[in-house]
From TrEMBL:
It comes from Isoptericola sediminis. GO terms for molecular function: 2-methylcitrate dehydratase activity. Monomer. Its EC number is 4.2.1.79. Residues 287-474 form the MmgE/PrpD C-terminal domain. Keywords: Lyase. Belongs to the PrpD family. This is 2-methylcitrate dehydratase.
Length: 505
């Protein structure tokens, strides 16, 4: 890997195009490399993972709305169209990316990478797959495109923090998806460079979508970035240009959206010929909740099982989760969001409330993507009473470990201190989730397949489950005609009989 220093350049200060970050990203994307076997296996795992969580969300309102929007658009004339989860219709690739992206993201249940910023790199898959289906590309070409999408997003997340400036993390997704599509299509550096600039320019938004009363837009935000990436590549292929330099310009991204003209960022990128292995640094979720809650769910389940008295509010005086800066301020009491303690809050809000999540996992000894968020579950009086005794506190050591580049000490957990009503104290800690590569039960192909089968049970017929898994696991050898198999058809169409409000389309 080679570290690239990125900063603002004055209008009268020369900066060659080839020295711009967008060009360097395009240079990585334009190189056609065969993925390693380990990387290939992980891409397959994440395609299965995406389909699993999308299948579990097919009947939810945001998915039905996004799907109906996509179905309102015919296949564009440039190709055969792309598939939509649960639908018999094909549509234009940008709208397929939109609908499928919302389905993948809705339950906050797919993969993650956390470093200087946050990301869900699996969000790259819907737009890249949609373009591959539409233009009749092979499984091998799709594989290379997805590898690039992960590579670019992970390395942008390692180098550039968006959250401290309240910029939503999808600002890294637009460029990564555009780069991945560029690899998929074998586009030249110049075209990919222009697409990256447009994708960044059109996908920069504030983090209010993940603050306070969190709305259904949380699931739509990455789907929008994927849709914009496809449109940006299309425009760039037609010879249209972008704001430049998009990162380094006087009125550019760093100068006005990030830390200002004096700031310096260091973004690592692979050198020419170097294997693209960033996907191996990412990790999926065993539980449907924000990633920084994963380890806490595992710890809470264990504590509640070993010490069932902790489930009773009268037995507990206080619970303090000592954790990283990000966990405290994003999903903890440090956010200052009263909604994180509101039993009538939306599901989207509750899955970003570690006080709620820890309480329910402690009491139930389990976590379920539906039951754990049910309104009646959130409103249970003993849960509300215990929940309001749970707070978070930033611990500098856990913040340091959160940002560590050493995988042996990088962690996303913390230390819980429980003060009991009788004066005793319980102290336990956990560094990473059980499913993490360094956790107690790391996820491999068997666990990804099991997750898919579990979430698809009762939604897809057994033969449909087997069919999808067969197609996904043959990804590198798939022909263009077989890529249409990377979708799912449920036993009962969740849109059938649904009273969906109309829109413009």
């Amino acid at each position: 890997m080679l570290d690239h220093t990125v900063r603002t350049y004055r209008a009268d200060e020369p900066l060659a195009r080839t020295d711009q970050l967008a060009w360097k990203i395009a240079d990585v994307a334009a190189e056609q490399l065969e993925p390693t076997p380990e990387v290939t296996d992980m891409v397959i795992n994440r395609i299965i993972d995406n389909a699993a969580v999308a299948t579990a969300s097919l009947g939810r309102a945001p998915i039905l709305a996004a799907r109906s929007q996509a179905e309102a658009h015919p296949v564009s004339r440039g190709g055969a169209g792309a598939t939509i989860f649960a639908s018999e219709h094909r549509t234009s690739p940008e709208w397929a990316a939109w609908a499928n992206g919302v389905a993948v993201r809705e339950l906050d249940y797919h993969d993650t990478f956390l470093a200087a910023d946050y990301s869900h790199p699996g969000d790259n898959i819907p737009p890249i797959l949609a373009v591959a289906q539409h233009l009749g590309r092979s499984g091998a070409e799709l594989l290379r495109g997805i590898v690039t999408g992960y590579e670019i997003q992970v390395n942008l997340v390692k180098g550039i923090c968006l959250h401290e400036h309240k910029i939503d993390h999808v600002a890294h997704l637009g460029p990564s998806a555009a780069a991945g599509i560029g690899t998929l299509l074998g586009l030249p550096n110049e075209t990919i460079y222009q697409a990256i600039g447009q994708a960044l320019h059109t996908t920069t938004a504030t983090r209010q979508s993940r603050k306070g009363e969190i709305s259904t837009w949380k699931a739509h935000a990455p789907a929008f970035a994927g849709k914009m990436a496809i449109e940006a590549v299309d425009r760039a292929m037609r010879g249209q240009t972008s704001p430049s330099p998009i990162y380094e310009g006087t009125d550019g991204f760093i100068a006005w959206m990030l830390s200002g003209p004096e700031a310096r960022y260091t973004v690592p990128l692979p050198t020419r010929g170097e294997d693209r292995t960033a996907i191996l640094d990412t990790y999926t979720k065993e539980h449907s909740a924000e990633y920084q809650a994963q380890a806490w769910i595992d710890l809470a389940r264990r504590l509640g099982t070993e010490r069932p008295e902790l489930r009773e509010p009268k037995a507990v005086r206080s619970i303090v989760l000592h954790t990283s800066h990000h966990t405290h301020y994003v999903i903890g009491s440090g956010s200052g969001d009263p909604q994180k303690y509101d039993p009538t809050a939306s599901r989207e809000t509750l899955d970003h409330s570690i006080p709620y999540i820890f309480t329910v996992a402690l009491q139930d000894g389990a976590w379920d993507h539906a039951a754990s968020y049910a309104p009646e579950r959130a409103a249970r009086p003993d849960t509300v009473e215990l929940w309001r005794k749970v707070t978070t506190a930033e611990d500098p050591e856990w913040t340091r470990r959160y940002h560590s580049s050493d995988p042996d000490e990088k962690s996303f957990g913390g230390r819980v201190e429980i003060e009991l009503s009788d004066g005793d104290t319980i102290v336990e800690e956990i560094a990473v989730a059980d499913a993490h590569p360094y956790g107690a039960r790391p996820f491999g192909r068997e666990q990804y397949v099991a997750k898919f089968r579990s979430l698809a049970d009762g939604v897809l017929a057994p033969e449909e489950i087997d069919r999808f898994l067969d197609v996904a696991q043959r990804l590198p050898e798939l022909g263009a005609d077989e890529l249409s198999g990377l979708t799912v058809t449920p036993i009962t169409d969740p849109a059938a009989g649904a009273d969906l409000p109309g829109g413009i389309f």
